[in-house]
Amino acid sequence: VKDFETFLQLVNLYMTQPRKDESLLKAYVNNVKGYLPFLKQDPQTFFDDTLQKIIYNNSPWITSIPTAEDLDKLNADRGLEIYNSIFGNANGMHFTFVGNIDVEQARPLFEKYLGSLPSTGEKVTFKDNGIRPVRGIWNANIKRGKEEQSMINIMWSGETEYNREERMALKALLEVLNIKIIEKLREEIGGMYSGGMGGDIKKRPYTHYDIYAYVPCGPENVEKLTEALFALIKDAQEGKIDQKDLDKVKETWKKKYNEQLKENNYWLNVLSQAFIDEYNPEGVLNYEARVNELTIQDLQKAAKKFLDMNNYIRAVLYPENANVEAGVQQKKTF
């Protein structure tokens, strides 16, 4: 609290007086060049990089492992120019403050350090470059490394409408499926130690959902675990969801919610996200009621809508000596 004015001074300086340091850029480039060879040989990094290229059909917009030539093109003057184009225009910027703040004492500080920030009047927004994941069913076998270990990665994605209740149902579905993944794939089959599913609905640069499943396992268990995971998804789509699992998710969420209400970072995230995604932040106050209203039917509906078994990408990392053919196969298109 005593450093609040200093904090605002630093915010102002970050935006108005950035400094260029050629020596720091050079040190950064040399550092990255030093571990580039290790990145290229690391099976997981190679797998992730290859998977991104498959998902987005080799789009040049998608970040991949840089080359030494890419790094040599980095230019401090250009970097500073980009920085200033963003932070040299405070028009439309929204500052959210959470914590022990005396509003009357803070007001003149806001006027001095934030109100004086430069503004060109130009409206700043994001741009949709039109990058979309491939559609249909895709299978990719990727070979890298000597260790007898594999990674199954399955991704579902698509355009949708933004609905907070539907988003909550999707997240609850993924939590319930994670319970079943532990029970079936880890404890019953014994084919994995970690892994699970995650995903979200996002509004930028277009309203879409991304869902992923990742299952580290031995190469001999790839097909068995894939089939088991798909069977769990089919059960969810048919409404075969245990009420006790949904109740467990609800209780965990509500407990975490009541703990987070005491944290500044939670409120900061809620208020900032509400501004960015343009919804009423007061929804956080009835969070428990919305959680209590979740039903098995809500999760079943989400499973049918978002886990489309005619539209997914399955990529598997195999060791180089595995008895499988490397390559990408498109099984079904729209």
Query: Helix/strand/pairing class, anyone?
Result: alpha+beta
- Which ranges are low-confidence, i.e. pLDDT below 50, for 5 or more consecutive residues? none
CA radius of gyration is 24 Å
Helix content: 40-55%
Q: Could you state the order of secondary-structure elements as H and E?
A: HHHHHHEEHEEHHHHHEE
Q: What is the terminal-to-terminal distance?
A: 57 Å
* Order of strands across the main sheet: 3-4-2-5-1-6
Question: How much strand content do the residues show?
Answer: 5-15%
Oligomer: single chain
| Helix segment tally | 12
Task: Assign an overall shape.
Answer: globular
Task: Give the overall average pLDDT.
Answer: 94
Overall strand count: 6
Biggest pleated-sheet summary: 6 strands, mixed
Structure notes:
It is a single chain. This protein is α+β, with helices and mostly antiparallel strands. About 50% of the residues lie in helices and about 15% in strands. It is built from 12 helices and 6 strands. A 6-stranded mixed beta sheet has the order 3-4-2-5-1-6, sandwiched between helices. Strand 3 and strand 4 form a beta hairpin. Helix 1 runs parallel beside helix 6 (about 105-115) and helix 7 packs across helix 12 (about 295-305). The protein starts with a helix and ends with a strand. The mean pLDDT is about 95.
